[in-house]
Amino acid sequence: MGRATKVVLAYSGGVDTSVCIPYLKNEWGIEEVITLAADLGQGDELEAVREKALKSGASISLVADATESFVTEYAFPAIQANSLYENRYPLSTALARPLIAKLLVEAAEKYGADAIAHGCTGKGNDQVRFDVSIGALNPNLKILAPAREWGFSREQTIEYGERFGIPAPVKKSSPYSLDKNLLGMAIEAGILEDPYAEPPEEVFQMTKGLAATPDEPEYVEISFEKGVPVAVNGQSLAPVELIKTINTLVGNHGVGRIDMIENRLVGIKSREVYETPALLVLIQAHRDLESLTLTADVTQYKRGIEETYSRLVYNGLWYSPLKGALDAFVQQTQERVNGTVRIKLFKGTANIVGRKSENSLYSMGLASYGEEDQFDHKAAEGFIYVWGLPTRVWSQKHQS
Predict the structure, then answer these.
(1) Which of 83, 107, 139, 395 has the fewest C-beta atoms lying within 10 Å of its C-beta?
(2) What positions does the entry give for L-aspartate binding (predicted)?
């Protein structure tokens, strides 16, 4: 392939992606830069972002409202798979990357671009997620990553932008790096780079500190159909509204904060702070409902699938063949995961206190120790004999 001439740039409106526009045109000879900002429910004023891209030199500035598909096509499958990277992080940021990549590829094909660009650096996970996803969706597109190559400091990046009419930030920016969408917020940099330093209260936006939470517990009921959340406290809600409602409910009680040392794909350990109120509670509730409606062997085997699934998503392999195969397995398991889970919210905790389902495999007659006990206790002796036979044979052989 020859040199790229028309590029679609993943655009956020920040310093780095804004500077990418003149950099691509002046340093790499790109004739036309089209920007695309994805609305994933982050709450930003994206019209201002669109206009800034045009002022920075973009020929076309696109804003794609993808919040609905973000929830239904990415978040809900991840909930069905109980996706927790390293058993803690529910992939709120990682899930956005394959969707943004899809939007970029669609825009490139629509406008006849021969390349896609992004502002990721060489140290993070997102560069991998974008590059691999774009390559899976359209391997003929070039991928350009100026920030991986220009070697600018923050100050040099701002100075470069000013040369081409991109204004510097009006005020001193926050020391923290924030990445927010409907599912949660990732918080990095500043004092958080010290893994021993406690995150200051000012970094959190979606969850209350314990001192500000209610002094009385609150109960919330979440209903699922085929493993997908559909109602809160008996009220059916559209997907986006459901996530917003649960974010507010559980965030009000200080639930949803994560502070962890995370193993990045590029080999670096990083200190990550996340707020993911709804996503964490939904996975917790969904997993509990599965314990009521799935057989023991399916539940236990699925745990290994979930770990692999989470790692694939984190590592940018959403569009990989293995991920597709695991999707098929997960969807098969969800056919009877219907019911309601009751959760008690109080002072930073979300404890499941009840669950019910028409597909429940729980039998009061078998589980009870009361008069309604229907279990055949005499059958246990023969079962134990057969179950323990290999161990007894092994022991007799070695002791002799």
Answers:
(1) 139
(2) 121, 125-126
Q: How far is the C-alpha of 46 from the C-alpha of 39, rounded, in Å? A: 7
Q: Mark whether 16 is an active-site residue.
A: yes
Point out the catalytic residue in the list 83, 92, 126, 223: 126
Both 192 and 340 in one domain: the answer is yes
Give the structural domain span for 136: 6-163
287 is catalytic: no
Residue 397 lies in a domain: no
Phi, psi (degrees; rounded to nearest 5) at 198: -70, 135
Is 291 marked active-site? no
Q: Does residue 97 sit in the same domain as residue 39?
A: yes
Instruction: Report whether 228 belongs to an annotated binding site.
Output: no
Within 10 A of 57 (CB to CB), how many other CB atoms are there? 20
215 and 143 fall within a common domain: no
CATH code at 352? 3.90.1260.10
pLDDT of the chain, 400 residues: tens digit per residue = 467 899 999 999 888 899 999 999 999 999 999 999 999 998 778 889 999 999 999 999 999 999 999 999 999 999 999 999 999 999 999 999 999 999 999 999 999 999 999 999 888 899 999 999 999 999 999 999 999 989 888 889 989 999 998 887 655 567 788 889 999 999 988 899 999 999 999 999 999 999 999 999 999 999 999 999 999 999 999 999 999 999 999 999 999 999 999 999 989 999 999 999 999 999 999 999 999 999 999 999 999 999 999 999 999 999 999 999 999 999 999 999 999 999 999 999 999 999 999 999 987 766 667 777 777 788 888 999 999 999 999 998 898 6
Q: Is the CA virtual torsion 80, 81, 82, 83 positive or negative?
A: negative
User: Which pTM does this prediction carry?
Assistant: 0.92
Residue 99 lies in a domain: yes
Q: 111 labelled as ligand-binding?
A: no
Question: Is 342 marked as a binding-site residue?
Answer: no
* Statement to judge: residues 147 and 184 lie in one domain: no
294: amino acid identity, one letter? L
